[in-house]
Amino acid sequence: MLAAIESLQVGALQSLAAASDAAALEAWRVVHLGSNGSLKALMLRLKEADKAEKPALGKRLNELKSGMEAAFEMRRVAVGSAKVECPLDLTEPGTAPVDGRRHVLTRTIDEITEVFARMGFSVVEGPEVEDEWHNFTALNIPEGHPARERTDNYYMAQQAGTRRLLRTQTSTVQIRAMEVMKPPLKVCAVGRVYRPDTHDATHYSMFHQIEGLFVDRDVTMVDLKTTLLQFARAYFGAEAEVRMRPSFFPFTEPSAEVDMKMPVKGEWKWVELGGCGMVDPNVFKAVGIDPEQWSGFAFGLGVERIAMRKYGIADIRWLFENDLRFLRQF
Ligand code: FA5
């Protein structure tokens, strides 16, 4: 048995030295270190040895095993054959890192705000949780007006006698701006608004509006229409048009619905985007601006409606589902 051990050691190490490429090394490994290899066969023979000799022979076999394994590793490194166990094909295409991107609504908001900023509007902000003064009273919507109904608003629990609600429109920011800024002023505000509307392809209970307000001496409807037209052409293209249809808002007089003609799936179409009008004298009085001295216009457009038309999105609900397969398209 001892002779067999010596013979295997000499023979195996000689043939290992002769293995000069990965294939030869692998073949050597299978013949000598494999589960049916020469080393294993020798170890099985230990059972047949005399009981007295077993400990010494076992020790010798273990030395042989670790010697052969170490020699194999050294030879493997020397031959540069790491490929045997971990094939690495440098010509394989890699996995491209996935780029992050802005949500299509964020992108629309940034684009719209940039256009209005270029037109001289400063960007202002207001809170989403509002008091009744800013959401209704100062906007000429008195107590008892149907727009204040519980069913049309998200009211919060009353605190210290004040009832608050999630704002239903960004027109609240008109009031906040005029309370702290003296005319002339030209501001815009973008943000979330909330209404208990039933969800469908064009309505959601939380959506975004962009509000514009311009107050100066002798402002007219012509200034309003020109401003909206400039925006439409800058954002939708040189052929865009603006149309106003008579309407009613408590905080503007006269009031109008705004439609813009824009490319929808390659065809120019009229799309209803929001409301506008001349600031009502009662609104000026509520914020301490003299309506005899100053006049102004205001408008409020639905941001989702703009994004949906601009990017060909058929259903508003997709904007809020956070399905990456949808979002990655923009
Ligand atoms: C207003 O909210 C007025 N504050 C607009 C205004 C501002 C008028 C300044 C005059 C002066 P309206 O309720 O029509 O108006 O909403 C404006 C736009 O918001 C709509 O045209 C539509 O584009 C969008 N909108 C309204 N409800 C929803 C909804 N549930 N989901 C998505 N978008 C909506």
Radius of gyration: 39 Å
Q: Output the structural class.
A: alpha+beta
| Helical run tally | 11
Shape descriptor: elongated
Text of the CATH class of the largest domain: Alpha Beta
The main sheet orders its strands as 1-4-5-9-8-7-6
What is the CATH architecture assignment of the largest domain? Answer: 2-Layer Sandwich
CATH superfamily of the largest domain: Bira Bifunctional Protein, Domain 2
Q: DSSP strand (E) fraction?
A: 15-25%
The stretches of 5 or more residues where confidence is low (pLDDT under 50) are none
Global mean pLDDT = 93
The fold-level CATH name of the largest domain is: BirA Bifunctional Protein, domain 2
The run of helices and strands is HHHHHEEHEHEEHEEEHEHH
**How many domains make up the coordinates?**
2
Ions, cofactors and other ligands present here are:
adenosine-5'-[phenylalaninyl-phosphate]
What is the number of E strands? 9
Could you list some keywords that capture this structure?
about 325 residues; 2 domains; about 40% helix; seven-stranded mixed β-sheet; BirA Bifunctional Protein, domain 2; binds adenosine-5'-[phenylalaninyl-phosphate]; two-stranded antiparallel ribbon; alpha+beta
Q: How would you describe this structure to a colleague?
A:
The chain has 330 residues and is an alpha+beta fold. It has two domains: 82 residues; 224 residues, 2-Layer Sandwich (BirA Bifunctional Protein, domain 2). Helix content is 38%, strand content 22%. It is elongated, with a radius of gyration of 39 Å. The model has no long low-confidence stretch (mean pLDDT 93).
